[in-house]
Write a structure and sequence with these properties.
mainly beta, Maltoporin, Chain A, five-stranded mixed sheet, 35 strands, globular, disordered N terminus
């Protein structure tokens, strides 16, 4: 059952306040409590289990496929493979409305995922989530700092893992799912299995495991040379394995306890053919190069819920979680006559997170004068220990192994938050505020520069308003302030190359980034048409730009000095719409048209410079035909060209601008039996050659290896899913 916020939602709250239990289809990311997404004064997308299966979603890039104003950049390619912020390697995280990296908060079951700082030529990425373990994904746009604190300036993505109840419907005591999949764009083979059980009326459990073997992601390059001219992908062998264990205990009396263990392990072996030198060779020419990457993330979480029915709270929720994320990259270079080179880089982030939250429903009046409010308040505490180390053999001139790009650091934050949802008639008004105190404590041991420690605080208010005109239409507005504290790598980045005449230094004066976000939108839920649209604007202050030149000329005795610094003000405006049109029945089936469109534009308000992280406008539209036994759909994606006046380039440099492109995808599902489904799709049906802006930013217009950054051509995906 789904109810509306306003009159219907008010009645729901009134009923709950009177002690009537409610079971709803809900999301949790937007308010930290269960709520129907149609009742929220903001844009939020939910990708449920059915959509994950039908779309054959495998990783972060697939999550963003149909979402307006959302994309997933690739990490910078390794060592001599690329320059700047470009990438053709692993997924770096989400870009939401032009903001990316650690400006987008990523959660799993409400627990912060590691930030995986980038240092030197290494970028470990943030794709340490196994989609095969998930039940749904919630994507929230705009600042989320009022509820979650630092990092959520651009939005958040919350990955919700599978729950035993999803497999134990209709009174089953044992159930589960098995799946097998093949992806043609990376020759990937994946197997997954989930088993859930009900021990008694009190205990449910689940164990889920996935394994995968994947090769390099294909592109449209044609040059197979084993040197820097290569545009075909470098040979790559990936191994992925993950396991999820969950126990749910409901002892009665309104209690519910969830115990979760999760482990994700992703490894990759690269033969870096494009790192080999061309003739004529010198003593330092690279004859061969390899790379090994391992990313592991382990998590243990307890979540407790109590129905207390006291004067100060109806419900209390507590969460305690520990997470250890480790990354390692091992690179070798076989050089012509000079000594061979080895680099062994590690990154470790261990995080303890604790949350305590209460909620209280209050009703006043009766009849037409009745109103209700839901008060949610709580405390958050997070403590992360971040370590990095670079070892190796034969460092470049000016380097000495072992070294730390930034000191081992303890980052901690404590916060108090409160929000209140007022309901009266067709109106819902939700104010909220959060106060954060953060500290960055650096350890001097093993660090070559003077380590800097910082502390600070931030207040993040928000206000959401929703008006339901009738059962079909509603309008909403939302204001939210956001902030992002500087991280360990930005505060204390250090490197010195005396031979090359440059160095990076810490910045003890680095300030948190701040934002002001405004959004207005509408929703329509008609019999044939479901539509949601929003216009947004963001004002950002004290943007942190990494490794900007602050002094020096590079001459002897006057080295170039680089530092992470705060810049001025940035403005990003845009619009997005998403919906589905049902055309009715035809020849025993139903026809519908899903669609989405997003566009944004960003500028530095002081200089007028474009914000390069903003994506070109993109339109997706499809046609879906569905019967009881099968469905088929054809989807088109059109991305506009990136224009020169929408890109900032330094004086004397050029930028490759992505041309417009349109791709077609054909997919479908055959429900062989109620418990057996075959999914298949042909992606990039016309074998279109195209580039994504996120992957080529920073590449010069005349780059001879631009084809190396092109997307896969025509490919096939197939999966078989069986329930039991």
């Amino acid at each position: 059952m789904v109810v509306s916020l306003s009159a219907a939602h008010g009645q729901e709250l009134l009923a709950q306040a009177g002690g009537v239990p409610q079971l709803k289809e809900v999301v949790i990311s937007s308010t930290r409590s269960e709520q129907n997404p149609d009742d929220l004064p903001m844009r939020i997308d939910v990708i449920n289990a059915q959509a994950l299966e039908e779309g054959q979603v495998r990783d972060l890039r697939d999550v963003a496929r149909d979402q307006p104003n959302i994309t997933v950049p690739r990490s910078p390619a390794r060592f001599t493979l690329a320059s700047g912020s470009t990438g053709r390697d692993q997924n770096a995280g989400f870009n939401i409305r032009g903001l990316e990296g650690n400006r987008v908060l990523m959660l799993v079951d409400g627990v912060r995922l590691p930030r995986s700082y980038v240092f030197s030529a290494n970028a470990f990425g943030r794709d340490d989530v196994d989609v095969g373990l998930l039940q749904r994904i919630e994507v929230l746009r705009g600042a989320t700092s009022a509820l979650y604190g630092s990092d959520g300036m651009g939005g958040l993505v919350n990955f919700i893992t599978a729950d035993p109840s999803a497999f134990l419907k209709d009174g089953k005591t044992l159930g589960g799912r098995v799946s097998a999949a093949y992806d043609g764009d990376d020759d990937g083979k994946r197997l997954g299995a989930t088993l859930a059980g009900r021990t008694n009326d009190t205990v449910q459990w689940l164990i889920s495991a996935n394994v995968g073997r994947v090769n390099e992601l294909e592109n449209m390059g044609t040059n197979s040379a084993a040197n820097v001219d290569r545009t075909l992908p470098n040979p790559q062998k990936d191994k992925n394995a993950s396991v999820l264990g969950k126990v749910v205990v409901t002892p009665g009396g309104g209690q519910r306890h969830v115990f979760t263990l999760e482990h994700v392990d992703k490894t990759a072996d690269y033969e870096l053919l494009s790192a080999r030198s061309k003739a004529p060779l010198t003593s330092t020419s690279v004859l061969g190069s390899t790379s090994f990457t391992d990313m592991q993330r382990s998590r243990a979480t307890w979540e407790g819920n109590w129905r207390v029915n006291t004067a100060w709270a109806d419900d209390v929720k507590a969460v305690l979680s520990y997470q250890d994320a480790q990354s390692r990259e091992y690179i070798t270079e076989d050089r012509n006559t000079a000594a061979d080179r080895v680099r062994d880089v590690t990154y470790d982030e261990r995080t303890l997170q604790a949350n305590l939250q209460g909620s209280k429903l209050i009703r006043m009046g009766s009849g037409a004068d009745a109103w209700a409010q839901k008060l949610t308040y709580g405390l958050d505490y997070t403590r992360a220990q971040v370590e990095n180390l670079q070892r190796g053999v034969t460092p470049p001139a000016g380097e000495t192994f072992p070294l730390k790009r930034f000191p081992d650091t303890t980052e901690s934050s404590a916060a108090l938050f409160v929000q209140d949802e007022f309901i009266r008639g067709p109106w819902s008004i939700t104010p909220g505020v959060r106060f954060d105190s953060f500290r960055i404590k650096a350890d001097q041991a093993g660090f070559a520069a003077n380590a800097v420690s910082l502390s600070g605080h931030a207040t993040s208010p928000k206000l959401g308003v929703l008006y339901r005109a009738n059962e079909a239409w509603s309008v909403f507005g939302n204001y939210a302030a956001g902030f992002r504290a500087p991280n360990a790598g930005q505060v204390n980045a250090f490197f010195e190359n005396t031979v090359g005449g440059y160095r990076t230094i810490p910045n003890p004066n680095l300030r948190p980034e701040k934002s002001q976000n405004f959004e207005v939108g509408m929703r329509g839920r008609l019999q044939a048409l479901a539509i949601e649209a929003a216009a947004f604007t963001g004002r950002y202050k004290d943007f942190i730009e990494d490794l900007q030149q602050v002094s020096g000329t590079g001459a002897p005795g006057n080295p170039l000095v680089f530092q992470s610094i705060n810049l001025g003000r940035v403005k990003i405006d845009g619009f997005e719409v998403k919906g589905n049109m049902a055309w009715g029945d035809w020849l025993g089936g139903r026809i519908s048209t899903p669609f989405a469109y997003g566009q944004a534009r960003g500028r530095d308000t002081a200089t007028g410079r474009a914000v390069n992280s903003v994506e070109p406008q993109r339109l997706t539209a499809g046609v879906r035909y569905e019967t009881a036994a099968w469905h088929v759909r054809l989807d088109a994606t059109h991305s506009a060209a990136k224009k020169a006046d929408d890109v900032y380039t330094a004086a004397g440099s050029t930028q490759y601008l992505t041309p417009a492109y349109t791709t077609l995808d054909l997919s479908g599902q055959w429900r062989i039996r109620k418990d057996l489904r075959l999914n298949a799709g042909i992606y990039n049906l016309t074998d279109k050659k195209y580039w994504r802006w996120a992957d080529v930013r920073g590449l010069a217009a005349g780059n001879s290896t631009i084809d190396a950054y092109s997307q896969p051509g025509r490919s096939v995906r197939v999966s078989l899913v069986a329930d039991f």
